[in-house]
Amino acid sequence: MTELPKTDIIFGVFNETSSDEARVALTPDMVTRLNKSGVRCLVEHGAGLRADYPDEAYAAAGAEVGTKEDVLARSHAFGFVDRPDAALVQAMRPGLWVIGMLGSFTDEQYVEQLEKAGLVAVAMERLPRQLSSAQSMDEMTSQNSVMGYKSVLVAANAYGSFLPMMTTAAGTIRPAKVLVLGAGIAGLQAIGTAKRLGAVVTAYDVRPASKEEVESLGAKFLDLGLDFSAGQGEGGYARALTPEEQAAQQAAVDAKAAGFDIIITTAKVPGRKPPVLLTRAGVNGLHRGSVIVDCAASDLGGNVEGSTVGSTVTDNGVTLIGAPYLASEVATTASNLLARNVADVLVHFIRDNRLQVDAGDQIDQAMVVTAPGNEAKGE
């Protein structure tokens, strides 16, 4: 097998911006970092512009900026914010590498397309995040952290009063009462942000370990009077509840929700339908002017029954915001974190100056969903 010189590995990034997406999978500082690892970077024109990374910044860092056709024809590996569409998959040469959130847990047909195209597919959603060596590659954690922060700002903007207590000449305004459902990475960031803005924060999560985490941030833990002591799942995620457990949880949350002004839901299950935490009955029980931000809203559903992507106002005056694209609204920082995750995944697979899969490596075993070959070769 002929060994490739370091400078023969070219990492390509496309312009993925759209009405919902402003992030980019490579930033200029990561270009510099990858160059030190012997990787050259090729970026499509305008890829980072909406994240405030202009073409000139990439060029100054040592990347080459070109057309989509240039990136497609000359790259050996590609990094994505999301994943390549079917047309782009078909246009890729066999043996190329694709790194991104590929939806591999639920979209087997898509994975089959990647395999038929002869691509080496690395699914970021399958990262074994419990491994210390995987922490810097954890896109889900970095992007959920941004999402949790932004969710509170979105809620505050939609809410018709102050979040902190205010004492004025006209009287004292009480602080907003915020409930965060789901105390993972996004939920904890939402708790911290809401606390910093002066709200009175309560949170709930099915995982037993979450109570201590919630209270460490100065929030109260919502006692539903239920025992899901086996709520911790694999990889730090909450396990899926049984139908009976979920019904009991929904009824308890619905009953408690009426006492809050703002509810933020963050309980995503990677690649799967999110659990319904608040039913229509719970939404109808909220007072007029309440705000709900459902970070788990998607085509698969959301944490709130009836939520859809976008903003709606219910008949009883509750603003329900389905907001799956919040990380994109903080595009500069989100891209900076995402680019580090993707770059570290790429570098992980560089062995003996070429890209290859090690069948005995835990990260490789977990993340590589198609591997027709063990290296990416230049033309």
UniProtKB/TrEMBL annotation:
Enzyme category, top tier: translocase
SUPFAM superfamilies per the UniProt record, alphabetical: Formate/glycerate dehydrogenase catalytic domain-like (SSF52283), NAD(P)-binding Rossmann-fold domains (SSF51735)
CDD domains per record: Rubrum_tdh
Keywords: NAD, NADP, Nucleotide-binding, Oxidoreductase, Translocase
Enzymatic reactions: NAD(+) + NADPH + H(+)(in) = NADH + NADP(+) + H(+)(out)
Assigned GO CC terms: plasma membrane
Enzyme Commission (EC) number: 7.1.1.1
Alanine dehydrogenase/pyridine nucleotide transhydrogenase NAD(H)-binding domain ranges (all copies): 156-322
Keyword Cytoplasm: no
Statement: the UniProt record of this protein carries the keyword Repeat: no
GO BP terms: NADPH regeneration
Domain Alanine dehydrogenase/pyridine nucleotide transhydrogenase N-terminal: 12-147
GO molecular function: NADP binding; oxidoreductase activity; proton-translocating NAD(P)+ transhydrogenase activity
Domain of life: Bacteria
Summary of the function given for this chain in its UniProt record: The transhydrogenation between NADH and NADP is coupled to respiration and ATP hydrolysis and functions as a proton pump across the membrane.
Family according to the record: Belongs to the AlaDH/PNT family.
Name of the protein this chain belongs to: proton-translocating NAD(P)(+) transhydrogenase
Organism of provenance: Bifidobacterium magnum
